[in-house]
Amino acid sequence: MRYVILAACGAGAALLASCAAPEKKVSAVPVDCAQLAVKFAPAGTRITAAESVPAGATVTGMAQPYPMPAHCKVTGRMHERTGTDGKPYAIGFEMRMPAPWNGRFLLQANGGNDGVVQPAFGNVVSGGATTNALMQGFAVLSSDAGHAMERSPEVGLVGGNLFGVDPQARLDYGYQANGKLAPMARQLIATHYGEPPKRSYMMGCSNGGRHAMVAASRYADQFDGVIAGNPGFNLPKAAVQHAWDIQAFSAVNPDIKAAFPPSDMKLVADKVLEKCDALDGLADGMVDNMPACQKAFDIKALQCTGGKTAQCLSAPQVTALVKVFAGPVNRKGEKLYSDWPWDAGVGASQIGFGSWRAWKLQGPIAGLPIIGALGAGSVAYVFSTPPKPVAGNPPALIKSLLDYNFDTDAPRVFATDAKYTESSVQFMTPPNATDLSPFKARGGKMIVYHGNSDPVFSVNDTINWYEGLNRNHAGKAADFARLFTVPGLNHCQGGPATEQFDMLTALVNWVEKGQAPESVLATARPGVNPDVPAGWQSNGKPRSRPLCPWPQQARYKGAGDINDAASFRCQ
Ligand code: CA
After folding, report:
1. Is 31 among the domain residues?
2. pLDDT tens across 51-67, in order?
3. Which residues fall inside 5 Å of ion ligand 1, going by CB?
4. Does residue 314 lie in a domain region?
5. Domain count, the chain
């Protein structure tokens, strides 16, 4: 007998709430790992390596080193071709198939500009992952989404964006790579284990969250569940905000990081807390009643009445923040992206933790904000039709955003031409984002989460999307899609927040056991994330909170340890 059946639970029975997961574990395989290199050869796919990785290998990108199960690692390329720029293109991928296998497939969607095949571990998307899909027995696929990042002194900081001149590479990055990878991955799994996966999932944050939302819309037939963290589902429009922010901050000081020293943004965060912390019934350094805070807090009240001091902001600084938080508009006053909420996480400054400061004001590259050092290249090459080339050095990139015209350049995100037949909004965003009827009809489940202080993609945009989804689904979107807003959280991690959580287990329980997530436990990382106050712990246990499905918010029960999630409820 080839298979070790640990728990009987067939595909049909899995729909029942009582059915336990994992359904079964497959620990012997009909086609050995090394044989896959010759035995797995569907049209358009080339396996470049297949190797057995022994148990115990450590995984990267997690809170601490964890040992991996033994697994088969397969690397390959799909649809190799020469682009219109004369350069070689392919959809590069890596698949890790563990023994034992739990019968599930996870497509790990990556962040940024893609262009790199990140290790296919399926680390849960949060600050400081403590588990991953591979450890749990999933077969995990990761890809470069159809292009390889270029690295050379000549291309500099736009090496991750140059693919945008090739029309097909744009479409693969936008959505087509995942549409080609998922069926191939299931075939590869079937070849190795002798049967296809029972369940298919996708998980990612940032651009990876966008991939997941696009998949629920375009490839509803391919995924049973998706996790979209801090999703950049309107990425081309969010990129218009990059130029808006750079222009606003530069008006205060051409040296962008000097426009707001860390102490000034800390002041803003402190003042937000002063007005909003207790609106949720508990002064705990977290703004749980985010909607009420928007009415209570007025940035203009921070403006100095005399000279600039540590306790106030200059008039140009206030003007800049008013602009940035209102979001970009054109000369007619038409909104080009979204507005942004005031929250206690806007003072976060830790580079490497996806902080507000790192993205908007001062990041790891040449002291420039990430929206300038890296975002400008995306605006130029990927989100403009036709591409508007820019040199890959910091002064040129910043200049391109300073020169950005919101009346004549912003419309390029909607533009097409004979060569680029889909606009960047078309290829990057989910079509009919608020109508997920096919996904719902097939029993698909979707968990979205978003940091209230995300500096890159506005949580307000995601809330607006969710409310539109709810309207389109007769007020019952929560039956298949739930949004968890996270107070203080910055971009996928960081900020004064309970940023460590496991949405993957929550999603699997929803899809396979019918247990809809009423709340998800989240934990802070005092001593690891420097933006978390030292007092966020009791007796050595870090602060925890329930994350609540929108529009619910966490509320203190009125008694019990304020650092313990058990003292809170969602309401
Ligand atoms: Ca509070």
Report:
1. yes
2. 999 998 888 888 888 88
3. 277, 280, 282, 284, 286
4. no
5. 1
